[in-house]
Amino acid sequence: MQNSAESVSLPSTAPRTDYGILGAISFSHLLNDMIQSLILAIYPLLKNDFQLSFGQVGLITLTYQITASLLQPLIGTVTDRKPMPYSLPVGMGFTLCGLLLLATAPNFQVLLLAAALVGTGSSVFHPESSRVARLASGGQHGLAQSLFQVGGNTGSSLGPLLAAWIIVPHGRGSVAWFSLAALLAMVVLMQVGRWYQLHHVSRSKMVRHVAGEALSRGKVYLCLLVLGLLIFSKYFYLASISSYFTFYLIHTFGVSVQAAQMHLFIFLFAVAAGSLIGGPVGDRVGRKWVIWISILGVAPFTLALPHANLFWTSVLSVLIGLILSSAFSAILVYAQELIPGRVGMISGLFFGFAFGMGGIGAAVLGRVADAHGIDYVYSLCAYLPLIGVLAVFLPDLEKRQRA
């Protein structure tokens, strides 16, 4: 006999993995995050143009990240109840407006408004596109989220490279040329929205995991707390690299702005490569172990980074990017399986919390850099991955599903 809470009706034919849709949503994620990363990449330019302090630089990131983090869970909850297939190109429209405003901003206050518009676009894009990736996964949820994430991380890595090649030589006004990328993304997302409208009902009837439902409410809350602390450690540390790595390299090793941006590109490219690993590995060996290794396993490298020369700083940054970035896809799918049927809410909550931690981290670390120097930031943040030891409290959901 089967317990009614654990029985699941299996569809006669499970939908196959739709790699065309996964490729389209990953490509859109690439364009979206490439545009957004331009803000981070041109920080040295903005700092000089507007005579900003490190604290004000952090405030730009905080505005962008907080706007995204506050709206994402709300949008995810709403779309869980009423899917909105064409919200994806609308979200990209907000990003387009923010990009054009960034290119023409006359003062710091307008820069903050531009960052808020880009954050609003992100808040619409991420929960719904994550849902599309899960619907198109054909049951390979970790693989689908990794393909989705690798698009975004690749786009983030291209931002510094394009800034070094185009924006630094031609000035901040050249940012407006990237509006063409936003328009291209809107065209692609219109096609994704059409597929989403046709398939979201049938694909939502796929068999869903029940492991999370078998846990007590207190255990689920404990798991969410642990996952939140792991997100905090990951994104606080990533904020120290993405927002201040160029300043650290210029200050510590005397490299040029363009050379520093190339180093940032290498780090972000490693982040993109690492994000492709975590999901499929989690599908095979279990997401708990990917989470454990990717957070705690990076600690020796972060502890060594503040004491390394330029060559080893580059090597260590690549290792840190590869290992640390493999966690998010595993964390997100783990949380989706922890609370089945709430993909939008969970995606919005975790994307939003990640963005919020990145923004708060940038603002706090900017103040720390103003008060104690940029070197102190990296010495302090080196200990954050040790929080990964808390993964011991996460149950093995895949083992419970097999049972």
TrEMBL record:
<dbReference type="InterPro" id="IPR036259">
    <property type="entry name" value="MFS_trans_sf"/>
</dbReference>
<feature type="transmembrane region" description="Helical">
    <location>
        <begin position="346"/>
        <end position="364"/>
    </location>
</feature>
<feature type="transmembrane region" description="Helical">
    <location>
        <begin position="311"/>
        <end position="334"/>
    </location>
</feature>
<keyword id="KW-0812">Transmembrane</keyword>
<feature type="transmembrane region" description="Helical">
    <location>
        <begin position="376"/>
        <end position="394"/>
    </location>
</feature>
<feature type="transmembrane region" description="Helical">
    <location>
        <begin position="174"/>
        <end position="197"/>
    </location>
</feature>
<dbReference type="InterPro" id="IPR011701">
    <property type="entry name" value="MFS"/>
</dbReference>
<protein>
    <submittedName>
        <fullName>Fosmidomycin resistance protein</fullName>
    </submittedName>
</protein>
<feature type="transmembrane region" description="Helical">
    <location>
        <begin position="21"/>
        <end position="46"/>
    </location>
</feature>
<feature type="transmembrane region" description="Helical">
    <location>
        <begin position="218"/>
        <end position="238"/>
    </location>
</feature>
<feature type="transmembrane region" description="Helical">
    <location>
        <begin position="258"/>
        <end position="277"/>
    </location>
</feature>
<feature type="transmembrane region" description="Helical">
    <location>
        <begin position="289"/>
        <end position="305"/>
    </location>
</feature>
<keyword id="KW-1133">Transmembrane helix</keyword>
<feature type="domain" description="Major facilitator superfamily (MFS) profile">
    <location>
        <begin position="21"/>
        <end position="400"/>
    </location>
</feature>
<dbReference type="InterPro" id="IPR020846">
    <property type="entry name" value="MFS_dom"/>
</dbReference>
<dbReference type="Pfam" id="PF07690">
    <property type="entry name" value="MFS_1"/>
</dbReference>
<feature type="transmembrane region" description="Helical">
    <location>
        <begin position="52"/>
        <end position="71"/>
    </location>
</feature>
<keyword id="KW-0472">Membrane</keyword>
